[in-house]
Design goal:
This protein has twelve helices and nine strands. The protein is an alpha+beta fold. A hairpin with a 2-residue loop joins strand 2 and strand 3. Helix 10 runs antiparallel to helix 11. The protein is elongated. About 30% of the residues are buried.
Amino acid sequence: TPTVLERLGLQRLFSPPLRMILRQLERRPLRALLSCLGIALSIAVLIIGNFFTDSADFLIDFQFQTSQRQDMSLTLIEPRSRRALQDIRHLPGVRRAEPFRTVPVRVRFGHRSKRTAILGLSSHRELYRLMDSSEQLVDLPETGVILSEKLGEVLGIRPGESLTLEVMEGIRPVRPVRVSGLIRDFSGISVYMSRSALNRLMREGDTLSGAYVAVDPSHIDRLYQALKNTPALAGSSLKQAALQNFRKLLAENLLLMQSFYLVFACIIAVGVVYNSVHVTLSERTRELATLRVIGFTRGEVSMILLGEIAILTGAAIPLGLALGRGLAGLTVRAVETESQRFPLIINFSTYVFAATAVLVAVLLSGLAARRKIDRLNLVSVLKSQD
């Protein structure tokens, strides 16, 4: 049966070995498709196994460098007046301090409710910058609240609608409040509000629950000593310590996961390629031996056999990259929780690594098959087929 190339009259544009390769692929389209898909899946598996590192690196930079730029967070035992902020600013080594007010609440919308906390921030902020997932600054309204997109999803609420805040401290007031907007962030189910608006909501004066502070590293020991002697302080959180613990946790889990995916992907690639070459070699042994007898070199015969894999691998790479990104997007949504969300970030180096690793696996499999071709006993092969 003439091939598509022959029917189109394009066979003269290709060398005889290449025409043989294309003819074989056209005669076995299902096998070619499955082999291409298998190689593409091995690339996708590698992308899934490595993109979490890219996402985690972006998340660390976003959370600890771009958005939250304080060195330390100080929390008071109970809400205090603005005078407490002056006391914090006079602690040794404190270069800047920005107040915040936190209020534990139950947010209710219709029959749905969730326990969380309102974070009241000042209008002028340099240390704690409220940003969405696209790294855009979010302004807090004079009235109303900004909800995490995840919290809005849990409650089923949209901007412009009103919810009920049931305060869980003090006299426990119940207040209706308008949702001014939703913000896509990466951790928690938070409610954000202007600190002055939160103070008015609580019907209190200029009150704070703590402060975000920037610290001079050369005075850190003196600051720790001063904090130990401050009875109004409930606790402190050092950002650098939290960052180190986060990195350690990621390193322990991601290294094991990446190793597993690398081995798994290579097994898929090698298995697909080796099996494809082995089946083709079994079916075409007489044909390849005949080509050797009539004058084809070992390299030309190998090209006929391995050229199929080369073409299939070339087609599988872009398919695998696209498939990997799609599966990574599904993975991000699957592991999303109320406490943590990962952004879909895949660096160019991850694509390169996935494609290169699979190419190396394919190459090694091809070299193993090439050795079988070189060891063909032409006489015995031709006799066995007579």
